[in-house]
Write a structure and sequence with these properties.
276 residues; alpha/beta; TIM Barrel; 9 helices; 12 strands; globular
Length: 276
């Protein structure tokens, strides 16, 4: 079985400092980054000088950007959506500035309301964002996250099919499905045609503990096997979320990122996937 796939990751889990993020990625031979935080500042809040500086550091290191790991959609759906749309446009601008084609986003919290009560307004907001993404030449990837509209596989599918736009795809996160009480493998069965991107972390269903890929209930290996067989060729983004004080998988940021990366590469080796 072959990929090819590219490993990327949230280097702000290695360290806050830009220089340490780059050194950490180089130490595990990962040549892409999903930018979320730089020097303790969210990617959407970086000043122009900070953007130029980080971009230059990445270029010197030979590290490319896979995605903007934005916080868009991680607000209450009844908040000021016009202001949030303006912030979304900053995310599109960051993708252009860092030379990547993906922006990660979420589908809104809905405090004191059921998912069904907020569905139409979520869909409308996503249709608007997908249109803007098309105009910018960017693809949005929706991450399933606990507590948002699209937290279960069924609602992720509903959102993606209701919006029905080529510039809205899925970022599949097996651990998040586990923590929502859903089967990630069943989720893959529903969402496979919509997935362009993976976030790689695993979790144990009983406790919610996050563990390296293949060591929890996320069924990451059979999911990746199915994805590769179906022709998936794209980014697998390391998002360790391992606790620093975890007795088995803790330690410093570099150590935890290395553990997560090694676990993923072990799976890829067993699947005979080609990493580029």
């Amino acid at each position: 079985m072959s990929g090819p796939v590219s490993i990327t990751g949230f280097a702000d889990e290695i360290a806050k400092e830009a220089e340490q993020q780059i050194k950490g990625l180089q130490s595990v031979q990962v040549s892409h980054i999903e930018i979320r935080g730089v020097d303790g500042t969210n990617v959407l809040d970086l000043e122009e000088g900070e953007i130029d500086s980080f971009r230059q550091q990445l270029e010197v290191a030979g590290i490319k950007v896979s995605s903007i790991g934005s916080p868009i959609g991680k607000v209450q759906i009844r908040s000021d959506l016009e202001a949030h749309f303006a912030r979304f446009q900053v995310a599109l601008q960051r993708a252009d500035q860092f030379g990547c084609r993906f922006v990660r986003l979420f589908s809104f919290y809905h405090q004191d309301e059921t998912p069904e009560q907020v569905r139409d307004i979520v869909v409308a907001q996503f249709q608007r964002m997908a249109t803007a993404a098309r105009d910018a030449g960017i693809t949005l990837v929706h991450e399933n996250e606990k507590g948002i509209y699209g937290d279960t596989p069924e609602r992720c599918l509903d959102l993606l099919t209701a919006v029905d736009h080529p510039h809205l795809r899925a970022a599949f996160d097996a651990a998040n499905f586990v923590q929502c009480g859903s089967s990630s493998l069943a989720g893959w069965g529903l969402l496979a045609p919509h997935v362009d991107y993976f976030h790689i972390k695993d979790a144990i269903a009983e406790s919610g503990r996050v563990v390296p890929a293949g060591l929890g209930d996320g069924e990451i290996e059979p999911i990746l096997a199915a994805a590769l067989t179906a022709g998936f060729s794209g980014f697998l983004s390391i998002e360790p979320h391992l606790a620093a004080d975890d007795l088995d998988y803790g330690g410093g940021g570099v150590e935890r990122f290395a553990l997560a990366t090694t676990a993923l590469r072990a799976i890829l080796h067993r699947l005979q996937a080609r990493e580029v």
